[in-house]
Design a protein that fits this description.
The structure is a single chain. By secondary structure, the protein is an alpha/beta fold. It has one domain (2-86, 152-230): Rossmann fold (3-Layer(aba) Sandwich), CATH 3.40.50.300. Helices cover 38% and strands 26% of the residues. The protein is built from 10 helices and 10 strands. It has helices at residues 40-47, 70-76, 93-100, 109-119, 121-125, 136-148, 166-181, 193-199, 217-222, 224-230, and strands spanning 2-11, 14-24, 29-33, 55-60, 63-64, 78-81, 154-158, 185-189, 202-207, 210-216. The strands form 2 sheets. It has a 6-stranded mixed beta sheet with strand order 6-7-8-3-9-10, with helices on both faces. Strands 2-1-4-5 form a 4-stranded antiparallel beta sheet, with helices on one face. Helix 3 packs parallel to helix 6.
Amino acid sequence: MLRLDGLEVFYGAIQALKGVSLVVERGEIVGLLGNTGAGKTTTLKTISGLLTPRKGLIELAGKPLAGIPPHALVGLGIGHVPEGRRIFNRLTVRENLMMGAFLRSDDGIDGDLQHVFELFPRLCERISQVAGTLSGGEQQMLAIARALMTRPRLLLLDEPSMGLAPLLVEQIFEAIGEINRQGTTILLVEQNAAMALSIAHRAYVLETGSVAQEGTAAALSENAEVRRAYLGE
């Protein structure tokens, strides 16, 4: 579904991505692992059109994405849950969710609203609450649900466990697994490598802007270098 080939991205004179190539097949969860500054968030921002690569190719289902603005990429089926959630703090839960459906004009919005409430019942309980007053876990649920309201074919998740208690992390990852089982392809950036590898089919490891390792989640979980660097062993 998604293919990156030789992606090079710069922040001014500083090169953040150095020829990144990866593939996400339809129906997969693919993890993108690495330490802070490895280029994980930059990769997602480039896929969703927030950054422009200097070199390289991005394709979605065989369609080159170069030059397509971010809002149009949403219309093509790319949903992005950014690092730090980035919800609309002064809007209610319902208003945030409807912002996710802003570009849509079909008659399936109410049904999708019910779907995200089934996935995250807490949001239904908080539907009229101002989003900025939600707990951190509830805000992360809202950020994911808002992206689902775009009806993405490909969901980009950036550090969904950041700042959350272990129990909430488990709940979020259970929901991510269910979203995938219902047919959404996922590219998951996550510093909690153990959790990411527990649900991913495959994964890539970035180091200073380059792909250093790739393979099935099971193989990377058993890789001595990955275990030492990212699994605390």
